[in-house]
Description:
Keywords: Cell membrane, Decarboxylase, Lipid biosynthesis, Lipid metabolism, Lyase, Membrane, Phospholipid biosynthesis, Phospholipid metabolism, Pyruvate, Transmembrane, Transmembrane helix, Zymogen. The chain crosses the membrane at residues 12-43. This is Protein sorting system archaetidylserine decarboxylase. GO terms for molecular function: phosphatidylserine decarboxylase activity. The protein is of the alpha+beta class. It has two domains: 7-42, no CATH class; 55-193, Distorted Sandwich (Glucose Permease (Domain IIA)), CATH 2.70.70. Helix content is 18%, strand content 32%. The protein has two helices and 14 strands; from the N terminus they run ααββββββββββββββ. It has helices at residues 7-24, 26-42; strands at residues 55-56, 61-69, 72-79, 86-88, 93-94, 97-101, 118-122, 127-132, 138-141, 148-149, 154-159, 162-167, 184-185, 191-193. A seven-stranded antiparallel beta sheet has the order 6-7-8-12-3-2-13, with no helix packed on it. It starts with 6 loop residues before the first helix and ends with a strand.
Amino acid sequence: MQFASGARRYAVPLLVAAIPGILFVPPVGLTLVALAAGVLYFYRDPDRRPYAEGVVSPADGTVSVIREEDGRLRVGVFMNVWDIHVNRAPLGGVVEDVEHVPGAHRPAFSKESDHNERVHLRFEDHTVTLIAGAFARRIHPYPEAGARIERGDRIGHISFGSRADVLLPPEYDRSDLTVERGKTVRAGETVLARE
Length: 195
């Protein structure tokens, strides 16, 4: 099993603190080991690859947003704490811009999350937006502007619950969608839309 970057930052201190805990206060030590295991579980990063043509999901989770914005479709995927939080490119292309926007930390499944902290990864014809949630305080985009990304590549991760949206290219409309709200999807594999 491979892990997203940042796993060591959270898991190692817990494991180091667990050693004296197990020796002197076993319940505390075992609790710290369990917390470290939970962190590693959260940061798991399995290999994925797109199997079918189309726009693939940027995240594991549940489709929570399908809406039109200025004549284009936005599809958002809510990730709960049990989902894998490594995000993937829904389409290939060159990253034109990576923009961090500070904001609130409301639950990522609510309408109020439209004002949350976020990172936009803009491509020529689509945008991926990584949105922090109530507990997610760290967004880690991987590519920088100018990077060429293939469909399904890792593009970042968000620590501890959040949402990932894709603003589809202009040529896509509702009839191209292959998902609906409430559908469970997998990052880099589940097709969200197909022309």
